[in-house]
Amino acid sequence: MENPAIHTNGLTRLFGSLAAVEDVTLSVAPGQFFGFLGPNGAGKSTTIKMLTGLLEPSAGTIDILGQRFGPETRELKRQIGVVPEGMALLGRLTAPEYLHYVGRMYGLDAATTNQRTEELLEFMQLAGEHRKLVTDFSHGMQKKLAMAAAVIHGPKVLFLDEPFEGVDAIAAGMLKTMLTGMINRGATIFLTTHVLEIVERLCSHVAIISKGRLVAIGSLDELRAGVASALPGVEQGQLFTLEEIFLAILGADGHQESTQELSWLA
């Protein structure tokens, strides 16, 4: 059996007595577009930070591409890309300077770095901004630059934390096309976002986390079947949207809050 591209076993992160992520065990197959969902504060970004080496787990293990992932796995880290929460770009550089820096950091030679920088800036519609400092970019432009930096080295595994936030519809469509192309070439993508329509369109498999614990995992068809079997009065062949699946699972797990009206808006 082929090794999972991403595998965690008992992954846990504590902040004092608070378990932000607790005993998360999951596997993502190579070439899979995997959606990682949950409400605000559920532990999504904390999980991605552990999976990419930005945060050390309190307990549990992580394997990437069949290798144990940790602080000393420098070569393994060169095979992953990440668009983290907050992006953390170097604002006093121009876009070409930043991509040159990232490409060389990942071990690309100068010629390859130059070629890919030019291609990425053109693809991301940033080629005309080569003299502007990154700190002067709009949020959407910074998001596109962060995505360019995440893929310049051709990663085998790509982690994306809210990559479409603040990106206009044209750019979002362009990024979706790029990500689909990466999947078609065998890359693995781990995506977290609050935009469920994007997950439903792009992802084949989904996990849902709530209050730090995994409450569901499987293909979209498996999750639909599970929800259909759990809800009364469901007609045969009825298809649920991902939003309906999401709300049904969180409600069944006791985490969906009752609707509250505001007196001055009702």
Distance between the termini: 57 Å
- Morphology call: globular
What class do helices, strands and sheet pairing give? alpha/beta
Rounded mean pLDDT is: 90
Provide the CATH superfamily of the domain at 1-79 and 157-162 and 188-255: P-loop containing nucleotide triphosphate hydrolases
What's a quick, concise take on this entry?
By secondary structure, the chain is of the alpha/beta class. It is built from 9 helices and 10 strands. The protein has a domain at 1-79 and 157-162 and 188-255: 3-Layer(aba) Sandwich (Rossmann fold), CATH 3.40.50.
Explain this structure.
The structure is a single chain. The protein is of the alpha/beta class and 266 residues long. It has a domain at 1-79 and 157-162 and 188-255: Rossmann fold (3-Layer(aba) Sandwich), CATH 3.40.50.300. It has nine helices and ten strands. The longest helix has 16 residues, at 169-184. The mean pLDDT is 90.
